[in-house]
Specification:
Elements: H1 3-14, E1 22-27, H2 31-44, E2 56-60, H3 67-73, H4 79-91, E3 94-98, H5 108-113, H6 122-133, E4 139-143, H7 146-151, H8 153-160, E5 164-166, H9 170-184, H10 190-205, E6 210-213, E7 231-232, H11 234-247
C-alpha cells in the first residue's frame, strides 16, 4: 500500500462513522435555505475524501405551514409538522437536529421536548458566537422576518449575553419582509440585494456595529464583505457548530 493510501486509511480508522453523529436537517423553510445550510456543512467539514464527510439526513418539507401566518394571522401552527420531522429524523439515526429557519425557533422548545437528541438553537448559538467573536461590539442590527422581530427571538437570546439587538423601523421592516418573500420566489437579483443593503446601512446609521442576517433567505443575497462592518450569518454559525459536535 502506498504511503498516501496508508495515511488515508489511518484517518478513516481514527474517525470511523460509528464515532460520528449523524446530522439531521428539518428543512423546507424554504428549500433554498435548506440547500444553503447543507452546502455550508459540507464546506465546513475538513474532509479530503467522500468517506471523511459527515452523514446528513434532510427532511425538506416545504409544506410546513407558514410561520409568519401562523403567528400573526392565527393560521395552522407548524409545530406538529416540525415535531413529526424531528421524530422521523431521530428514528432514522440523526444524533443532532438543525432547523434552518429563524422564525421556526419560536417552536424550538416543543420540538426539543419531542426527541431525545439535541436540537441546536441557531439563535442562541449565534448570540454566543457574537459574544466570543466580537467581544467589543455591543449593538447588533437585525435583518429578519417580521415574526422573528415581533417575537423578540434575537433580543431574548442576546439579552442573555448582554448584547443589544436593534430592530429596523416599521417602514424598513416592511421592505425587508417583501425582500424575503421575493427571495423565496427565486428573485435574487440586484433590486432585492440593493434594498437589503439599504436596510443594513440604516441600522448601522442608527447605531448597529454589526448586522445579523436573521432570516435564512437573507444570506442567499448578502455575504460578509458586502459592507464595511460585519455581516453575521447564523446559517454559517449553525453549520460550523454542528460539524464540530458531530465530529467529537
Amino acid at each position: 500500500m502506498r504511503k498516501a493510501d496508508q495515511s488515508s486509511a489511518k484517518r478513516n480508522r481514527e474517525r470511523s462513522p460509528k464515532a460520528e453523529k449523524v446530522i439531521g436537517i428539518i428543512g423546507g423553510m424554504g428549500p433554498e435555505a435548506t440547500i444553503d445550510l447543507f452546502r455550508k456543512i459540507v464546506k465546513a467539514t475538513p474532509a479530503r475524501t467522500d468517506q471523511e464527510h459527515l452523514r446528513i439526513l434532510i427532511d425538506c418539507n416545504p409544506k410546513i405551514p407558514d410561520r409568519v401566518k401562523a403567528i400573526f394571522e392565527g393560521e395552522k401552527s407548524p409545530a406538529e409538522a416540525l415535531i413529526a420531522a424531528a421524530q422521523s429524523l431521530a428514528r432514522s439515526g440523526a444524533g443532532i437536529l438543525l432547523i434552518p429557519c429563524n422564525a421556526a425557533h419560536y417552536y424550538h422548545g416543543e420540538v426539543a421536548k419531542s426527541v431525545s437528541v439535541p436540537v441546536l438553537h441557531m439563535i442562541e448559538e449565534t448570540a454566543r458566537f457574537c459574544r466570543e467573536k466580537f467581544p467589543r461590539l455591543r449593538t447588533f442590527g437585525l435583518l429578519a422576518a417580521s415574526s422573528t422581530v415581533a417575537l423578540g427571538l434575537y433580543r431574548l437570546a442576546f439579552d442573555k449575553v448582554r448584547r443589544k439587538i436593534l430592530h429596523p423601523r416599521a417602514e424598513a421592516q416592511e421592505r425587508i419582509m417583501q425582500c424575503i418573500y421575493e427571495i423565496k420566489a427565486g428573485n435574487l437579483g440586484p433590486r432585492v440585494r440593493k434594498s437589503l443593503l439599504g436596510a443594513a446601512r440604516e441600522l448601522a446609521e442608527g447605531g448597529a456595529q454589526a448586522i445579523i442576517l436573521g432570516c435564512t433567505e437573507v444570506p442567499l443575497v448578502l455575504q460578509e464583505g458586502d459592507l464595511p462592518f460585519p455581516l453575521i450569518d447564523p446559517t454559517q454559525v449553525l453549520a460550523e457548530i454542528s460539524v464540530a459536535m458531530a465530529r467529537r
